[in-house]
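Extended Data, record Xylulokinase
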Amino acid sequence: MVADDSAVLALDLGSTWLKAGWVRPDGEIEALERAASPLRSDAINAEDVWRAVEGLLARLCRSPQAPRNILALALTGVTRSHVFVDPAGAPLAPVMLWSDPSGEEQSGAVAQAYGIDRETAGHGAFHPLARLLQFTHEHGGRPHAMVELKDWLNFRLTGLWATDTVAYSRIRPAQDSGLRLEDVLARLGFTASVVPAPALPTHILGPVQPSIPQALRALAGTPVVVGSFDTWASSLGMGAIADGNVYDISGTTQVLGTFSRMPRTVAGMVSIAWTPDLWQTGGPCQTGLGTLAWFARAFLDSDNPADTLAAAAESDGVDLPICLPYLSGERMPWWSSTLSASFQQVRDRHRRCDFALALVEGLVLAHRLALDAMDARRPDAFLYMDGGGTLHDAWMQARADAFGMRVRPSASGDSPLAGAALTACIGLGLYRDIAQAQAAINAGGRVVEPDPARAAYYDSRVEEFSTRLSRDLTLL
């Protein structure tokens, strides 16, 4: 039994904000604090990130809501954010962020080390080992280790190294390849220790060291959980991790995925081991609320996606243009940087509100095609949703209608923090497994039902959308 005055201190290391809060075992978040993320900078010093994290955690420790019983410390955040360190754990170079394509020159050598085609999904410029190889070329020496930023921060707290098994699955050779990761690393000239050993996200790494800075002395001895990156934590905090479930993280861009008992081969997507018995298939889209914000800037003298949705609501929705919404190309499932946006079948009767609604339709149809590629759209399934998109009823309704699925918005209000905290609670034994933890946060909650008439309308539009998209893809 957990005392009423008990909570996990959870932190989400985002690209725009650092967020932290006291999270109860049922996922309820209290005393949420945030600070501008140091990851906004061009060249990021990991030590600067540590100082920002230290300051934010210190504010939470001083807050009136700080519990008497600190259960654990749990970190999550952006992934593919690599730190190269010496034997003492000191950074040797700026943090290499998710957007850094400098591994491109090494992607062929890395693919060869795995014995695969370099075009295989996930084996391009952003592959962790391509980045590792690029570091050695740029700096003339091999680092002691390469770790994700979250794992480096865990090291600063505990003095212990671990790679979470979800991130590790990106670089683990396929089971049917007959290779071990140490074999791949050896072919590239590295020892196995350059990647710290994997541990489950729910594994308790160790206690906060007594040598922690004075401002964090209240955390000394507190268990630190290994954790995983923000998409993984979000799917847990939404209650989505189960066979056949679908998640939708709706922000400036969208992240979509589904779960299965076995890895799946889907063009343009990567299957990653999410738990010991579940695989996630999906990935990030380039399209989302940021596209709605573009329309607001371009045509509504605003920067608010809500204004685009409000304009769309003024349309009578009759004979709209077809909108391909790819302002900045598209990632999953097309992976094309040159795919562009367009309004097609435009007539002189169309008004600004019609273009706004056409854009909303184009976005949800684009994401429907991604779900169809995953074979994830089923009327009996929930779409678990979190992010800024859940603040807009019209956006959630459009997705329910276009997908023909019930949408269940996150009850926590911040699923990465809730998921990070639940990860720690599982590791502490407060829940026996992920299913029991998710049951604690999924009781009740709002559900957005698809409108049958609108669902039929989207069914009538998707073929034309897909045909015009295929035509553009063929021309690239």
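Summary. The longest strand covers residues 69-77.
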